[in-house]
Amino acid sequence: MKVYDTLKGKKMFRWMRIVLLTCIAGFVTHFAMSAYADEEAKPETNVAAPAEDAPKTAAAPAAAEPINKEVEVDSVAKLRSEVKSLWVCLAAFLVFFMQAGFTLVEAGFTRSKNACNIIMKNVMDFSIGSLAFWLIGFGLMFGLNKEGALSGWIGTSDFVFDPGTAGAVLTGHYGWAFLIFQTVFCATAATIVSGAVAERTKFVGYLAYSVLITIIVYPIFGHWAWGSLVGDGSAGWLGNMGFLDFAGSTVVHSIGGWAALAGAIVLGPRIGKFNKEGKAQPMPGHNLPLAALGVFILWLGWFGFNPGSTTAVDGGAFAFIAVTTNLSAAAGSIAAMITAWILFGKPDTSFALNGALAGLVAITAGCDVIQPIWAVITGAIGGVLVVFSVLFFDKLKIDDPVGAVSVHGVCGAWGTLAVGLFMSDGGLLMGGGMSQTIKQLTGIAVGFVWAFGVSFAIFYLIKVTIGLRVTEEEEFEGLDISEHGLTAYPNFQASHQ
pLDDT of 338-347, one tens digit each? Predict the structure, then answer.
């Protein structure tokens, strides 16, 4: 038995050696054939190594490298372009949301019987503004300057704007992005007027003015100041002079504010606003929480308004602008609260809210060139100004229910002047002399004369033609019923006028 087991073990060992040797031979043959196949596949020039002193030539992949780099550069450029368009659109969406903020502020600061009318005016401002600016306003504002008498005064191309047409000032996706961004700016200027003429304006008369501000008042002055943003690179005459207004303290806000002043004067005050002695009587708004929500929405939207005016994300300048914008708003709110506290003995909520808006308006012109500490000062002065400005217009018997003239007109002018005082490179208080300050004052004065003068003529023309003001009965009843046939608060209207 032992002999059999021994023989059996020897046979198994022999077979194991045969299997092992066969496997090794198979692996060797496989690798040899693979190496031979790789050698056959190599280009002939690579069979032998070049001599040490032979000139070195680039291999095939290196020869294709410039093409790959060009493709890579094109891809990066395309990505940058798409990101730029995305940023401008996102900023435009934030500014569009400001329309809701204006609606809530104006509705909250006025009486409940006129809330629907406020809503309708703000909806129509944006709707009419969108169509009118696309058809005519954009061309007047950003179209090419025509050589000769009109050069620097109005744009003469790109009406019914389409970036796909030959000769368009902007092309591609960015052209559409720029259009929607500027459209919401135009609507902002138009809707500023709504609050100052609230509670006594005929709806049809207001619609007529809304059309005219978006195709005449706003875009023409905008061309004077901002015509260099697009197109052939030639600025409007104010821009060529050196006038600076980065995001529109004057171009948007003062233009809207001075137009609002003209409307308030032509309309006259609301019934009961001033007594026989000419003293202003309180006519409080019906919903302060609504107004507060509107202010916070506007504050948020301003991060599209100012940082978005970079129209690009390169260099991160938008982040710096966001900081200066926020600091100015905060300082404006605090300063207005303190001012009202000193004057009236109480920290008035409505003035604190308008103070925040005053700070935002004030920093809009110089948010890119004013350092944070000076942004705080700019906003704080705006907050003080808005309180005294409201009291000043009350003494003049100019009725502005929401303080639009003070917030946008007066503080917009202050913010534009602040550029000449506080800008890092060239400001008067920064050692730059009077040059920039004079340019800013010129722009402020021109903006006032243009916006107030043209708007006054438009409002007066509407007044003597289709009519501008509702009757006393309609005003007493409320514009919601007389103009729109409904009420915002059916169960609340009778008890709160």
Answer: 999 999 999 9
β-partners of residue 280 are 274
283 contacts 273 by C-beta, under 8 angstroms: yes
Domain at 404, CATH number: 1.10.3430.10
Task: List C-alpha distances in Å: 458 to 23, 114, 436, 450.
Answer: 101, 24, 33, 12
* pTM recorded for the entire structure: 0.83
Over the stretch 400-446, which tens digit does the pLDDT of each residue have?
Answer: 999 999 999 999 999 999 999 999 988 999 888 899 999 999 999 99
Domain that holds residue 384: 84-484
Residue 20 lies in a domain: no
The count of structural domains within the chain is: 1
Helix, strand, coil % over all residues of the chain, rounded to 5 = 70, 0, 25
Task: Determine, yes or no, domain membership for 127.
Answer: yes
Measured CA distances, 144 to 103, 167, 223, 380 (Å): 35, 10, 10, 39
CB distance 302 to 359 below 8 Å? no
Q: Map tokens 């008369």 to a residue.
A: 205
Query: What is the distance between the alpha carbons of residues 328 and 320, in angstroms, rounded to a whole number?
Result: 13
